[in-house]
Specification:
With 297 residues, this protein is an alpha+beta fold.
Length: 297
């Protein structure tokens, strides 16, 4: 079997920035184990596989794999896959709907002077919260001091808009920069069945950004992710949830990957109504990088 693929850098407007993604354009006939092996071969944070939709009213059925496991939903794979299909002229119009394990993911295509430059998605699920984790355990997993972790707004807490992650606010940019994942602590305390990874963030204006973030998921084969859409589409909801106003539209420009040489910029938005986060969105630019053919026995 021969399968065509395209790689794209997501959440950036320049090559070699953002988060790389491989998109296998026609995954018909590939088994789940073959998809997992291909994702491990690319060794990007995620690889997507495009299949015919189960409902012809939708654009495609999309499966998402990290080097070690299948994901029910992830942000940068959706942004990048939608960009690739629109860039290739494979979809009519500027509205895309993907079928995924977590549900339907709706995306809009952004064009400038007729050219596809970006896409924007709505999270497939409303924001939900899970367990809280002690600052001491988070600090051990991320090579930090527990005093680096802010708890005045929220303690480290699991939240999800389709993929559960642990959200941790830090007190300084220096603490964020110094963080490093300890795979041994993740393996014993945070197996991937518990949540995807730890998303650290610090608020504060820097280079036109509203906050900076880093995400560690060694149990998924991702020591650090340059840009995590599933995390940031939930993070904007977390921020809106803890705002005192019952009704608001919150927008933030989030930087990620700056401390690993893959600067990424995510445009995030949350809508809160009657005290509840009703919808969350993220978007960003993409740059095509490589294309080729997979030869599969």
């Amino acid at each position: 079997m021969k399968r065509r693929y395209i790689t794209v850098d997501v959440f950036t407007d320049r090559p070699f920035g953002g988060n790389p993604l491989a998109v296998v354009l026609d995954a018909k006939g590939l088994s789940s184990s073959q998809m997992q092996s291909i994702a491990a071969e690319f060794n990007y944070a995620e690889t997507t596989f495009v299949l015919a939709p189960k409902d012809p009213a939708h654009t495609a059925n999309v499966r998402i794999f990290t080097p070690r496991a299948e994901m029910p939903f992830a942000g940068h794979p959706n942004i990048g896959t939608a960009f690739v299909l629109a860039y290739e002229g494979a979809v009519p119009g500027d509205r895309i709907v993907f079928e995924e394990i977590a549900g339907l993911v709706s995306l809009d295509v952004v064009r400038e002077h007729g050219d596809v430059v970006a896409t924007r998605l709505a999270a497939p699920q409303q924001l939900t919260f899970g367990e809280e984790i002690s600052p001491e355990l988070v600090a051990a997993a991320c090579s930090l001091d527990a005093r680096d972790i802010k708890t005045d707004v929220h303690r480290p807490i699991v939240a999800s808009c389709g993929a559960p992650l642990l959200f941790v606010e830090l007190g300084s940019r220096a603490a964020l920069k110094s963080a490093a994942p300890r795979a041994d602590v993740f393996a014993t305390e945070f197996p991937r069945e518990r949540f995807v990874g730890i998303h650290l963030y610090v608020q504060g204006k820097e280079d036109g950004l509203d906050l900076q973030a880093r995400m560690f998921a060694p149990e998924h084969g991702i020591p650090e992710d340059p840009a995590t859409g599933a995390a940031n589409v939930a993070l904007i909801g977390v921020l809106a949830h803890f705002e005192k106003a019952a009704d608001l539209t919150l927008t933030r420009r989030i930087g990620q990957g700056f401390d690993m040489g893959r600067p990424s910029i995510i445009e995030a938005c949350a809508e809160k109504k009657a005290g509840k986060v009703a919808a969350t969105y993220i978007g960003g630019r993409c740059v095509p990088m490589m294309s080729g053919t997979l030869d599969i026995d």
